[in-house]
């Protein structure tokens, strides 16, 4: 098989990992929180079907509470952190996977833990795929500028369905029927159309 060209942003299950960042009780007031958790839950289900490893973090859970149950992550052991980046508490997981090429990133807040995590991963030479319909902030201005900032730094901005279909790759895949059930209904609106409306200069 030919090597994957790193600049294209192609993803395959065997060299990918899903990061679920800080979807906790005290963040329920963030804009579009139910929608982004719903989309992240889709990503988690697909990752489990395709044997893509998953890591889950919680930011200062003593104060911000546990991961919300609707994410469906009960089988995962959350990594507690105070650093804005996920990377310090999951570095051993990264080091244990020399084949790792791509990180799929969901959660909040976009301008804080998502941005810091993306920059740390890019600094290690990994491809970062920000799941734009599974990331949010309290402020939509912060969300928009952080997405643009990550894109400027070399991260790929993708929708959940786009990434899911890249991972499965072929309608003949043995798990495609199950994945088709997950994406049969479109992902819920998480306010992205308003952010991208009118050829926003941040995304030119």
Automatic annotation (TrEMBL):
<dbReference type="Pfam" id="PF00857">
    <property type="entry name" value="Isochorismatase"/>
</dbReference>
<feature type="domain" description="Isochorismatase-like">
    <location>
        <begin position="16"/>
        <end position="161"/>
    </location>
</feature>
<dbReference type="InterPro" id="IPR000868">
    <property type="entry name" value="Isochorismatase-like_dom"/>
</dbReference>
<comment type="similarity">
    <text>Belongs to the isochorismatase family.</text>
</comment>
<dbReference type="InterPro" id="IPR036380">
    <property type="entry name" value="Isochorismatase-like_sf"/>
</dbReference>
<dbReference type="InterPro" id="IPR050993">
    <property type="entry name" value="Isochorismatase_domain"/>
</dbReference>
<protein>
    <submittedName>
        <fullName>Isochorismatase domain-containing protein 2 isoform X1</fullName>
    </submittedName>
</protein>
<comment type="subunit">
    <text>Interacts with CDKN2A.</text>
</comment>
């Amino acid at each position: 098989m030919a090597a994957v060209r790193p600049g294209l942003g192609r993803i395959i299950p065997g060299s990918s990992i899903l990061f679920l960042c800080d979807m906790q009780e005290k963040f329920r007031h963030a804009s579009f929180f139910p929608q982004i958790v719903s989309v992240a839950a889709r990503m988690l289900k697909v990752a489990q079907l395709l044997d893509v490893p998953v890591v889950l973090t919680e930011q200062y859970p003593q104060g911000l509470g546990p991961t919300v149950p609707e994410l469906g992550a009960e089988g995962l052991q959350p990594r507690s952190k105070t650093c804005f980046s996920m990377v310090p508490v999951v570095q051993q997981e990264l080091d244990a996977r020399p084949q790792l090429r791509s990180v799929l990133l969901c959660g909040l807040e976009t301008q804080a833990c998502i941005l810091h995590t993306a920059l740390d991963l890019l600094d290690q030479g990994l491809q970062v795929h920000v799941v734009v319909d599974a990331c949010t902030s309290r402020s939509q201005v912060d969300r928009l500028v952080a997405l643009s900032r990550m894109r400027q730094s070399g991260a790929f901005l993708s929708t959940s369905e786009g990434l899911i279909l890249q991972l499965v790759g072929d309608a003949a895949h043995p798990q495609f029927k199950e994945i088709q059930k997950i994406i049969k209904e479109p992902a819920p609106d998480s306010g992205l159309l308003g952010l991208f409306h009118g050829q926003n200069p941040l995304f030119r």
